[in-house]
C-alpha cells in the first residue's frame, strides 16, 4: 500500500498586492485533502494586519478595518501556531501559489518562523495553463469550466475560495474520472494477482429455437454463393 497523500487547499486575502511593501494577510483559509479527497477538516481565521485595508481589497472581499479590529495579529498563537499545527508537513495547493507563498512566508519571517519552501507548493494556475493553453485560468473561469457552483460567492473569502480551489484541483487531476479507478477493487492490494475465474462445470444449452435457426438458414440461402457466412465452416 502506498502512504497517504495529505494536501491543504490554501488561500489568503491581503491588504494589498506586495508583501515587500508592508502589505499583510487579513484572512487565511485551508481545506484538508487526503489522497485528493476533502476530509471535512478546515482552517479559517481573520487577522488584524495592523494597517488599513485597501479600497480594492474591500471591494473584492467585503472585509473592512472595522471587521478586523478585534481579530488577533498573525503572530498570536491562535493564528500562527494553530495554522502551522493544521498544515503540518502537508503540501500547500494554491491558485497563483507565488502570491500566497510570498505573503505567508513574509508573515512567518516576522514571527521568526521558518518559511514554507517552494518545493511544498502546487500551483493550480500553472496546472490549468498546461491543460488548457490560452484559456482563462482564473478561479472563476475554471469553476465555470468544471460546472462548480459560484452561487454563494458574493465576495472573495479565504475559506470559500479554498473550498472552490479544492474542487478545481480535483478536476485538474482528472476529476470525476478518478472515481472509475479499479485499483484495489474487491479488496485486492496493489500488486496482488486476481485468481482465475471459475469455469462452468457444464456448458450452457443453446438458447436459439429450432425455428429461428431454420429462418436464419433460409436467409443465408438468399444471399448468394459468396456470402461470408457460407465461406466459414
CATH superfamily: Ribonuclease H-like superfamily/Ribonuclease H
Major β-sheet, in short?
5 strands, mixed
Q: What's the structural domain tally? A: 1
Cα-atom radius of gyration: 29 Å
The CATH architecture comes to 2-Layer Sandwich
Mean pLDDT: 86
Q: Distance between termini?
A: 51 Å
Unreliable stretches: 179-200
CATH fold naming: Nucleotidyltransferase, domain 5
Estimate the strand proportion. 15-25%
Q: Residue share in helices?
A: 25-40%
Oligomer: single chain
**DSSP E strands, number:** 5
Basic shape: elongated
CATH class: Alpha Beta
- The assigned structural class equals alpha/beta
Layout: helices, strands, pairs:
Blueprint: E1 6-14, E2 25-34, E3 37-46, H1 55-61, H2 65-68, H3 80-87, E4 91-94, H4 97-110, E5 121-123, H5 124-131, H6 139-145, H7 158-173, H8 210-221, H9 228-231
Helix pairs in contact: 5-7
